[in-house]
Specification:
It contains 13 helices and 18 strands. It is an alpha+beta fold. It has a domain of about 200 residues: FAD/NAD(P)-binding domain. Strands 1, 2, 3, 8, 9, 10, 11, 17 and 18 form a nine-stranded mixed sheet that branches. Strands 4, 5, 6, 7, 12, 13, 14, 15 and 16 form a nine-stranded mixed sheet that branches. The structure holds flavin-adenine dinucleotide. Flavin-adenine dinucleotide binds next to α2, α8, β12 and β16.
Length: about 450
């Protein structure tokens, strides 16, 4: 540490109260996950790569590097999977936000590469669950549902694309009647089931992947908020009681990161999304509302999403909040949305309610780049990140070890920034989302 000639100006990170050594939120996932207890970072350490943030992005980057024989230190402010990773809808959905825009900009020559990136996250998840024996209730099956007649065209387009690509996994287009039979509601005009997508217990997946990483030698530190990064030939990541010097650093704090060097300010905006979990439903009721036990998500700009947990609770989420403030009562915010789809569940008890922050990027392309030299960042999945984080972790592992092809696709994209403070940016985002909310209602 200290101010040796190898360092230029340090990058102080503002104190983020959310990063003050918190335990997990009161989610269904936290209540049903094993506890992790990795030590706090103390003293001076060294590694090939230091990764900041132990959500899916940070853990996937670390595990990929460890599988390739690199030494890694993974530093987490709270607990493994504490952020969006341990709180999300658990829907394993193909794609990485912004891929269509990249393809539009770069043309057909990247089409196959983009197609591979779109599905690569799934391969990684399925492979790791098998290879490391991770118990995360992984199930295949995901349905996109049309809440308006005009959205049925999107379903037909999606099916045509898979046909044209000779997609090797099952998929089905459902008309209104089939959708009603499968999902026990009249709310949808059609559905599109994809068997390669699916759902899982995200916190258990992340904890299982961290365990695999640790067994491969990754030094994991919890309860260790990073407060400063000192740049130089070997940058140093600093916490209250320790530091890690590495050849490269990857910042993976997503919406919780608040790393604020010029290169990253006003790039990613936090937006709240909220989930409730019912009491376990009877087998009969579970079958009635989700015969194929698939994850379900609507086709609106501001999505509602739901699925059954392994113990047959209905986990229902949605209602993105861009104001930066969480609703006082999550249940009363989300429950009416759930009952609009399933009025028959009006007497069902709600056992859990929680929220988390999604990282929104204005142009919706995952923000990837370097703060400076060998300090990289990857953040802003704008909604769907369970699968995307896994391929992006691989792309970041490639980049810090010198393979830039896929990294350059993302890093070469121009990002818009809202001038002024992050607060001002949040208000602009909230206005933009009001527009989408109105559009969704039309
Ligand atoms: C309620 C909700 C529902 C969602 N549902 C889905 C879904 O069903 N399907 C889907 O694909 N995606 C979903 N998402 C999005 C998905 O969860 C995220 O895109 C993904 O988890 C992002 O992972 P990450 O590792 O980049 O960030 P996070 O999981 O947020 O992890 C960032 C980590 O960095 C740590 N950190 C931040 N600052 C510091 C610091 N200074 N020092 C050390 N550590 C730090 C944080 O403590 C945190 O653990 C949902 C998100 C939310 C909030």
């Amino acid at each position: 540490m200290g101010k040796g000639p190898q360092y230029d100006r340090g990058m102080a990170l503002p104190v983020n109260p959310q990063n003050q050594k918190q335990e997990h939120t009161g989610s269904y996932y936290a209540a049903t996950a094993e506890r992790t207890n990795y030590p706090e970072l103390e003293g001076s350490r060294s590694a090939d790569v230091c990764v900041v943030g132990a959500g899916f992005t940070g853990v996937a980057t670390s595990l990929t590097l460890a599988e390739r024989g690199y030494s890694v230190a993974l530093v987490e402010a709270n607990r493994v999977g504490w952020g969006a990773t341990g709180r999300n809808g658990g829907q394993l959905i193909n794609g990485v936000s912004g891929l269509e825009k990249i393809e539009k900009k770069l043309g057909e020559k990247v089409s196959d590469l983009i197609w591979d990136i779109r599905w690569r996250g799934h391969d990684i998840v399925y492979e790791r669950v098998n290879k490391y024996g991770i118990q995360c209730d992984l199930k295949s099956g995901y349905v996109e549902v049309a809440t308006k007649p005009r959205q049925v065209a999107c379903i037909e387009e999606a099916a045509a694309e898979l046909e044209q690509r000779r997609f090797p996994y099952g998929f089905e287009v459902w008309d209104r009647e089939q959708t009603r039979d499968m999902l026990g509601t009249d709310a949808f005009h059609g559905g599109f089931l994809n068997q390669r997508d699916g759902h899982l217990h995200p916190l258990n997946l992340c904890i299982g992947e961290a365990r695999a990483a640790s067994q491969l030698g990754v030094q994991i530190f919890e309860q260790s908020p990073v407060t400063e990064i000192r740049h130089g030939a070997r940058p140093t990541v600093v916490t209250a009681r320790g530091s890690v010097e590495a050849d490269s650093v990857v910042l993976a704090g997503n919406a919780y990161g608040q790393f604020k060097p010029k290169a990253m300010s006003n790039l990613v905006f936090p937006a709240g999304s909220y989930v409730i979990a019912t009491e376990p439903l009877s087998d009969e009721r579970a079958r009635e509302i989700n015969a194929r036990d698939a994850a379900v998500c609507d086709l609106n700009e501001i999505v509602d999403y739901y699925r059954l947990s392994a113990d047959k609770r209905l986990l229902y989420g949605g209602a993105c909040n861009y104001s930066g403030r969480d609703p006082a009562d999550i249940k009363s915010y989300i429950l009416p949305r759930m009952l609009r789809i399933y009025p028959q569940l009006k007497d069902v008890r709600i056992d859990y309610q929680w929220g988390g922050m999604i990282g929104i990027v204005l142009n919706r392309i995952v923000a990837v780049g370097r703060v400076k030299g060998n300090v990289y960042y990857c953040m802003g999945y704008s909604g769907h990140g369970v699968s995307a984080t896994h391929v992006m972790g691989e792309i970041m592992a490639d980049a810090v070890t010198g393979t830039m092809e896929r990294y350059d696709l993302f890093a070469g994209m121009k990002h818009f920034r809202i001038p002024g403070s992050q607060w001002f940016g949040n208000q602009i985002i909230a206005l933009g989302m009001l527009y989408y909310r109105i559009k969704d209602r039309l």
